[in-house]
Design brief:
This protein is α/β, with parallel strands linked by helices. The chain contains 13 helices and 13 strands. Bound molecules: adenosine-5'-triphosphate and magnesium ion.
C-alpha cells in the first residue's frame, strides 16, 4: 500500500474507477474521473510545485511537462484519457516539442510501468542493421555477427518499445515490423525459429506520417497499426504564455547543471524570448538559455541573447528590416 496519504488516495480512486468501469457504471464520467485522478497523481509526484524556489506561483506542469497554454491544456487532456491504456500510440510533433517526454510519461503512468522500457532511434541505426537490432541475430548470420544477440523486441518483452523517428524507417523494414506486430512474434536474423513477444509499441516522428502513408512513402497499414491513438504536440510558437513558464522552470535547472548560480532574466530579455518563433521548439529554448547562462551568470539581459533574437522579426519568424 502507498506510504503517503495522497498516493494512497490516488490508488484507492484508481481501483474505484476500475471496478465501476468493469461493472459498466461509469459511462461518460470515466474520462473525466481519470483526468481528475491524473491531476491528483501529478500533485502527489511533485508536479506544479515551486521548483524554482522564487516564491512566485508554482510553475504549472502536468505529466512532468511545463505548460499552461490553451494548446497544451488541450494536449494534456487527451494524454490524460489514454495514459492508462495499453494501446499503441503515435506521438507527433516538430523537433524539440517533447515527444520523448510524452513517451516516457505514457510508460511511467501506464500499465507496463514496471516492465522494461527500450528506446530505439530508427534514424540513427544504419538501415542494414535495423532488422538485427530489432529482432536479434544468430551467430554467423552476417559478417560481424560473432555471437547470438537478442533484439530490442525480445528485451522489451512484457514492457514497452519506443520506436523514435519511425518515419525514417526504410520501407522493407516497415514490412517486417508490420508482420512482427501482427503476429506478435519475431524471428532473429539467420534463425528459422520465431519467438513470441508481448510488447507495447509507442512510436514518434516529426514527419507528417499520414500524408506520407497516402503518398506511398510510408506503409499505410503500418501507420494505422501504430497510430491507434495519435498525440500531436503543438509547436512552442502556438503555446501562448508558455515561454515565460518554461524560462522559470528551466533557468534554475540548467544553471544547476552548468554549476552556475541561478540567474534572473530581465523583463526585456523575456520579451525577446517570448517574441521568437522557436523553430527548434523547447530544445532550442533550452540551448539559448544554456548559452546565456554561460555568458552571463547571475543576470540575463537582452545583450546576452543570440543576435537573431534581438533582430526585428515578423511573427511568422521571417527576419524583418
Ligand atoms: N513541456 C516541457 N517542459 C519541460 N521541458 C521540456 C518540455 N518539452 C520538452 N522539454 C525538454 O526539451 C528537450 C527536447 O524534448 P524531447 O527530446 O522530448 O523532444 P523531441 O520532440 O523528442 O525532440 P526531437 O524531435 O529532436 O527528438 C528535452 O530536454 C526536454 O526535457
Ligand atoms: Mg526525440
Amino acid at each position: 500500500m502507498a506510504a503517503d496519504p495522497l498516493g494512497q488516495l490516488e490508488s484507492g480512486l484508481r481501483e474505484l474507477v476500475r471496478q465501476a468501469r468493469d461493472a459498466g457504471l461509469l459511462g461518460p464520467f470515466a474520462d473525466l474521473l481519470r483526468a481528475q485522478i491524473e491531476e491528483l497523481a501529478s500533485a502527489a509526484s511533485g508536479d506544479s510545485t515551486d521548483t524554482d524556489g522564487d516564491g512566485q506561483d508554482p510553475v504549472p506542469q502536468r505529466f512532468g511537462m511545463v505548460g499552461a497554454s490553451p494548446a497544451m491544456d488541450k494536449f494534456f487532456d487527451v494524454l490524460a484519457k489514454v495514459v492508462h491504456s495499453d494501446v499503441p500510440v503515435l506521438v507527433l510533433g516538430e523537433t524539440g516539442t517533447g515527444k520523448e517526454l510524452v513517451a516516457r510519461a505514457l510508460v511511467r503512468e501506464g500499465p507496463r510501468a514496471k516492465g522494461p522500457f527500450v528506446a530505439v532511434n530508427c534514424a540513427a541505426v544504419p538501415p542494414n542493421l535495423l532488422e538485427s537490432e530489432l529482432f536479434g541475430h544468430k551467430r554467423g548470420s552476417f559478417t560481424g555477427a560473432v555471437a547470438d544477440r537478442e533484439g530490442h523486441f525480445a528485451t522489451a518483452h512484457g514492457g514497452t518499445l519506443f520506436l523514435d523517428e519511425i518515419g525514417d524507417m526504410p520501407l522493407p523494414m516497415q514490412s517486417k515490423l508490420l508482420r512482427a506486430l501482427q503476429e506478435g512474434e519475431v524471428r532473429p536474423v539467420g534463425s528459422n525459429r520465431s519467438r513470441k513477444v508481448d510488447v507495447r509499441v509507442v512510436a514518434a516522428t516529426h514527419r507528417d506520417l499520414l500524408r506520407e502513408s497516402r503518398a506511398g512513402t510510408f506503409r499505410e497499414d503500418l501507420y494505422y497499426r501504430l497510430a491507434v491513438v495519435t498525440l500531436a504536440l503543438p509547436p512552442l510558437r502556438e503555446r501562448t504564455g508558455d515561454v515565460g513558464l518554461l524560462v522559470r522552470a528551466l533557468v534554475p535547472r540548467l544553471a544547476a547543471e552548468l554549476g552556475r548560480p541561478a540567474a534572473v532574466v530581465s523583463p526585456e530579455a523575456l520579451a525577446l524570448l517570448d517574441a521568437w518563433h522557436w523553430p527548434g521548439n523547447v530544445r532550442e529554448l533550452e540551448n539559448e538559455l544554456r548559452r546565456a547562462l554561460a555568458l552571463a551568470p547571475g543576470a540575463i539581459g537582452p545583450a546576452d541573447l543570440s543576435a537573431h533574437l534581438r533582430q526585428p522579426h515578423s511573427p511568422s519568424g521571417a527576419a524583418g528590416a
